[in-house]
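Students often ask why inverse folding is considered easier than folding. One informal answer: many sequences map to the same fold, so there is more than one right answer. In these notes we will look at a single instance of the problem. The structure comes first.
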């Protein structure tokens, strides 16, 4: 009975921590005081592609791949370096794509043998595998950050970590633009999907992710 209570307490504590981290991450991108979107009454004002009733933000001039002029909170006005913002967007999107794949694998696909890997609950899994496995993941992520530090804050294409095996260098400029546009669109979809999957798992812990889509229960 004591073991069950400890497990439940650990699971609830992890859920609370995860939800707090999600809220904090969202708050980190919000400015202290949201600047009022400047409106141009001129008939020649260019409107945003994504929000046609708002004027296109000045810094979102279409020079970056995937720029649809979407910035209702005016975050581009407080960003000194939009390349850093794009690299951050790509990084979060890639993490969310991996996270979604991991969440689906956790619930439906085979696990490593052993009691530590038996749980199908995504919130119980970190506590179930123990500190050693979590520290390995943390160290691996830290190593990637250190190795690619100059690529994020230096010159060059935002998000290009040189992990494409040389495929991009063999493409034409138009082909490369198409691939990069596809990636940023998938990154944005993955961030929305991860948020939905995370909230669904919090609200309905006994319901698997794909069950609402008619998938296996």
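Output (designed amino acids):
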């Amino acid at each position: 009975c004591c073991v069950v209570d400890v497990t439940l307490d650990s699971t609830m504590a992890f859920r609370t921590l995860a939800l707090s981290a999600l809220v904090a991450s969202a708050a980190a991108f919000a400015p202290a005081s949201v600047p009022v979107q400047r409106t141009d009454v001129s008939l020649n004002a260019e409107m945003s592609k994504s929000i046609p009733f708002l004027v296109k933000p000045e810094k979102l001039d279409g020079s970056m791949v995937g720029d649809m002029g979407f910035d209702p909170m005016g975050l581009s006005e407080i960003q000194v370096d939009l390349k850093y913002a794009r690299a951050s967007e790509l990084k979060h999107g890639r993490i969310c794509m991996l996270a979604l794949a991991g969440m689906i694998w956790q619930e439906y696909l085979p696990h490593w043998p052993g009691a530590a890997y038996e749980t199908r609950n995504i919130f119980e899994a970190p506590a179930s595998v123990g500190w050693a496995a979590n520290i390995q993941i943390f160290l691996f992520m830290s190593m990637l950050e250190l190795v690619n530090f100059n690529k994020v804050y230096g010159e060059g294409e935002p998000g290009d970590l040189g992990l494409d095996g040389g495929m991009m260098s063999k493409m034409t400029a138009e082909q490369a633009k198409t691939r990069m546009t596809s990636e940023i669109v998938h990154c944005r979809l993955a961030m929305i999907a991860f948020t939905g999957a995370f909230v669904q798992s919090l609200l309905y812990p006994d319901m698997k992710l794909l069950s609402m889509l008619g998938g296996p229960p």
